[in-house]
Amino acid sequence: MLAILDCDGFEAAPLHKALEKLGAKTTPLTSASEIHRAAKIVVPNVKCYRRALATLRDAGMVPPLLTAIDAGCPVLAVSGGMHLLFDVMRDATEHSGLGVVHGRVAKFDFGQHPAAKHFSAHHQGWNQVVWSGEVPLMSGLKSGDFFFFDHEAIAWPLDRRATVATANHGHEFCAAIQRDHVFGTQFLPERSDAAGQSVLTNFVKQAV
């Protein structure tokens, strides 16, 4: 089954709607006992990193989720959901993530960069995403296509090869990741019209 994490703090409804519109049958993933049955897992956007992690940990979902990923279950994590996959999130304090992808997450910080005068730390709207080579999630799309973003934090994979697509908001940042069967997008495919539908379709059709 194609399971979508559907717990407190996760924005699952738009992804259920977008995937079902494409003809995919989705199942809400609400408890630890259901994870082993999932053929693929989608981790929706989250607005509050700490709240989402607390939800997963309190529900006992972290160990079976990591076990499923280690066993090769394909995962697509979206925007703030992608951030959960990393080792650590840094804002006012530091929070430990799931450690599926090594690296960190931090808020946009332009510092003394000239871009600070022209770019908001909240990146919301359409932006171009670029990539080179073969990127399974982007199959059938052209580098430079536009996707919809809504976020204040960005991911920094430790292994640069995990970054498979980038965008620019004052400076270049990671727009999509891949580590084996684990995929992530900083943009919101469910709000990215035809381009986003293609990304979701590519994940649904990804061989297990």
Chart the SSEs and their pairings.
Elements: E1 2-5, H1 13-21, E2 26-29, E3 40-43, H2 49-58, H3 62-70, E4 75-78, H4 80-84, E5 86-90, E6 94-96, E7 101-107, E8 123-128, E9 146-151, E10 153-157, E11 163-168, E12 172-179, E13 182-185, H5 193-205
Parallel strand pairs: 1-2, 1-3, 3-4, 4-13, 5-7
Antiparallel strand pairs: 5-6, 7-10, 8-9, 11-12, 12-13
What do these coordinates show?
This protein is of the alpha/beta class. It has a single domain, classed as Rossmann fold, CATH 3.40.50.880. It is 22% helix and 32% strand. It is built from five helices and 13 strands. The strands form three sheets. A seven-stranded mixed β-sheet has the order 2-1-3-4-13-12-11. Strands 6-5-7-10 form a four-stranded mixed β-sheet.
Summarize the structure.
This protein is an alpha/beta fold and 208 residues long. It has helices at 13-21, 49-58, 62-70, 80-84, 193-205, and strands at residues 2-5, 26-29, 40-43, 75-78, 86-90, 94-96, 101-107, 123-128, 146-151, 153-157, 163-168, 172-179, 182-185. The strands form three sheets. It has a seven-stranded mixed sheet with strand order 2-1-3-4-13-12-11. A four-stranded mixed sheet has the order 6-5-7-10.
